[in-house]
Amino acid sequence: MERCRRGLVLLPALMCWLFSAQVSAQGFGFQDVIDKAREKAGESYQAPTPVPQFLQELSQEQYQGIRFKSENSLWRESGSHFQVSLMSPGLYFKHAVKLNVVDAQGVHDLPYDKNNFTYTSEELARRVPADLGYGGFRLTYPDADAENGRRAFMVFAGASYFRAIGKNNHFGLSARGIAVNTGLPSGEQFPSFTEFWLIRPNAKADTLTLYALLDGRSLTGAYQFDIRLGDAAVMDVKSRLFIRNDIEKLGVAPLTSMFFYGGNTARPVGEWRPRVHDSDGLLMHDGGSGEWLWRPLLNPKNLKIDYFSAAQVQGFGLMQRQTRFDDFQDFGAHYHERPSAWVQPKGEWGKGRVSLVQLPSNNEVNNNIVAFWTPDEPVRQGQTLAYDYQLKVGAPTVSGSDRASAVKTFVGDGNRAGGGNVEGAYRIVVDFAGGPLKDVPGNAPVTSDVIAEGDGEVIEHFVEFLAPVNRWRVSILARPAADQPLSLRAFLKKGEDTVSETWSYEIPVNNDILGGDAR
């Protein structure tokens, strides 16, 4: 018994059996992948062989010009809701992965064929090796408005990264299989999914199952993804990790995103768009206390790592709460249609905390936000760990919170007319909406509870009802201690009942709000 601590192309010769076969879980299953991961953990780590340098040096435009021929999609002839489009290595995807198909006849290697792609030039096509291998794959579903009648809703490519979207989303933030030593001076490790097994679905199946083998310098892993698509993309994930070397910081169910600037930060000089971000906050649910906590994101001037402890983490995620075009004014990037992602643990993960890593960035190209769960107990060589969870990707409602949400955060100078006229202070404005406050009249007894952590001082706070937008606004005047960040917590009450999530915010010492060079 397993001991653990809880916490494309189809070649013509293959088309017939791929079309006629029915999926069978009897010949190959998750336990087989677990056994492979356990065995590999006992071997010396061998980094994946990189693809030729010229492929790694392709520009974004050149790489996107390598297009998979949709008529060769896996399972196209079966009538399945799910089809698979294959991807070439290159650019960010620096090594090939092994792909297998599992059906009633067994496990079959999916052979590589460079002719399943079109290329931007004959020279590039000629230089691509015949045995290059695939860089990853996309899962697609029927969409009458999409090119070729299908739309990609999930992508597995690059290290252990995967991305998904719900209905009416554009791709934005990413998830990963695991994070190792993120934000540490020793440097982050990036284990990779090196092999996948795609389980052929029945024609009418609404769930697709795939397995993945993870390999890295400090650990190996076996993963099972049960994937279904509705208004949100829903993945039930099972992971089994085998530790090769001691790990200082293990990041479970990591999410990676981008925050350049938003309504709560200074706008960089020369930027005309109101906001630029894939996500605007971290949401966490403590099942022990019942608290829902919201932390708006920052683009700090220096690396910033925050930890949020909970007696029992019921869920966490990176959310994109701004969903109107007017919030961004960028029709090309579709930031208003970027998805939110919510991780809900299954079983007992043990004691731990949610980590939020925010890195400085001077553009919108870099992913500078990472969130994950970290166990309190040390992760030691020889351990076997198990973490199961559900990941939902879609609208901001994927968390299932029933509390009023902090939908807007604004921060300004508190030492000016209309701001408070207090030297060294900040005026912070937070708008709450929805949940129990949705139909509450403007004269209801709604009050704010605001706390400054450390030696910070809350000078005043009051609540206003904004009838035109049906929001409740908390206005705060607060001042940090000398040379200290200002850390605040605020929530709303109706009578004696807490009706909102807890808004948690920290203004760093080094910022652009009270003057100085904008980013």
Automatic annotation (TrEMBL):
Signal peptide residue numbers: 1-25
Alphabetic keyword roster: Periplasm, Signal
GO cellular component annotations of the record: outer membrane-bounded periplasmic space
Entry superkingdom: Bacteria
Cellular compartments annotated: Periplasm
Pathway this chain belongs to: Glycan metabolism; osmoregulated periplasmic glucan (OPG) biosynthesis
Keyword DNA-binding listed: no
Protein name according to UniProt: Glucans biosynthesis protein G
UniProt source species: Alloalcanivorax marinus
Lineage: Bacteria, Pseudomonadati, Pseudomonadota, Gammaproteobacteria, Oceanospirillales
